Amino acid sequence: MKKTKAQAEQTRQALLHAAEILFCERGAARASVLDIARTAGLTRGAFYHHFKDKTEVLAALIQQSRTPEYDPPALLELQSDPLSALQAFCTELLQHFVADPRQQRMFSILMQGREALGDLEPLVRARREELFRSVDAYEALLEQAKREGRLSPNWRPRTAAAVLYSMMLGLVDQWLRAPDSLDMRWASDSCIAQLFSAFRLNAAKK
Questions:
Q1: Positive or negative, the Cα torsion across 52, 56, 61, 66?
Q2: What pLDDT is recorded for position 5?
């Protein structure tokens, strides 16, 4: 009996979910097509019906993990209070990450090295570099804050953007490595709030 579109999509999603888990736990280089199919409870033939190879699977996972609402370039629209807008964005981004296991697994995959990724490393590197460019959007908002006299003179926009981005990556990395060592929901609010308090102009007057 011919599968319906809904059944075909269900099979496709099962394969993607299996690949995501295996790529995260073993590394893409060590997860075979057969491993993915078996983990999904399917056959190798089912895999090749939906995907050409593991590269196509990873490309689909990357595309699926994109969240336009958390795309930093969207922040570059005119903001009446750039520091508050950036603070809210970073806080919500981390809280969304904590609540979404799929985003957590994809982050772990994207941060793997060449040995774990094998031939898929260039695809991951391109996406990783795209994420790293988020710091440019942060810097643009901090530049706006400086022009408007909102940024403390203790900070240069580029330095502030680098510190903010590094702190966020550090919090995520620590939490993923040792979840019990950090209350990420607290950190996503308190740590970011503390840093933005230092960014604001009134911090220079204390």
A1: negative
A2: 87
